[in-house]
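Hey, I'm writing a tutorial for new members on how sequence and structure tokens pair up, and I'd like a real worked example in the thread rather than a made-up one. If someone can provide the structure for the chain below, I'll link this post from the tutorial.
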Amino acid sequence: MILSELLDSREQVPLLTLRMIKLKRSIIKLLTNEEKTIVELCKETEFSIPTVTKVLAELMEAGIVFEKGKIGTSGGRRPVIYGVNPNSAFFMGVDVKRDSVSFGLQNFKNELVYEAIRLPYKLEDNMESLDVLCGMINEFVSTLPIPREKIVSACVVFTGRINSEKGYNNTFFYFEDAPLDKLIESKINIKTFIENDSRAMLYGEYCSGDAGRKKNVIYLNISWGFGISIICNGELYYGQSGYSGEFGHSPILDNEIICECSKKGCIQTEMSGETILRLFKERLKEGSTSMLTNKKPIEDITMYDIIHAATENEDLLAIEVIEKIGEKLGRYLSLIVNVFNPDMVILGGDMAAAGSYIELPIRTALYKYSLNLLLQDMTLKVSSLGEKAAIIGACYILQKRLFANE
């Protein structure tokens, strides 16, 4: 059995073959969580002992399952317990930002075994930029001490409006000849899916962080832009067309700032990393001072410089600008809290690195503008996964897809 068979859900395959594929997925999923005996596997899958034994033999031949040992008993034949070889297959997450790409490889035990964070890359909406991205993915895979065939699938995460089911990115690389996931797949020779960055970040927190104990979670992705993602009743919420979470593009502000979506007055125009950079430079030109001007020209200062200046050097101008954005974010976040009544709100994205400088003004504004009754059972926290949230979430989404129809 080859690993790609695990992802084969075509309706054209014979029914018996499809049933065996689903049984293999079920057994792998069960053994990933806990070692079990054949009897226990039969009970949970509702298949016969001969069938489960045959499938186990195929999985062991493929190196995915192995005999863990025998259970000690007071008498009689001791049953064999089986487990999953964590390094028999891997899932690859790729987080594509405007100025960098991060990679992560996760095994069957949900361990991030290989990673490469923030490699320089310039995201542009053309085929040349896509070719560079695919070349970087291939380069990362070539540096791994495992064969490419062991990577079951890859999830490439982008900002913008992503239809993950159809494989189209309506913000970047929207080419008419083929869905983006298929284009990337043809260039890297690995089964590929695409996903929105905010959803991937949230799912990473949900599967490996404190949010896993919650059923209704809102994630704020405050990076260059501003978006949200939602866990509703324990499931990622996509919306009818897969474009949910575009809260930052709600044109409800009375300003003349043109958003990247071409509308005026979007929330994102006054509450995002781009906004922090713009306000910071405006304050400098008006005569405010900052230690950053001793290090580089105003035009070369980046959003990351401002965050670092606040958190590492306690730069007053950087702190003031971040706090101003945080207060506005808290006010408009109260709209979401009052509508959704979530268990938890997570602050994530690049701006989350500002820590308490952005969290405290958000928290203060929430208590000022939200209904107090809704806040009593809600937790506000900063992302625990940081810049790895998207690649970890991408890998978990791949596992979710793999085991969705077992």
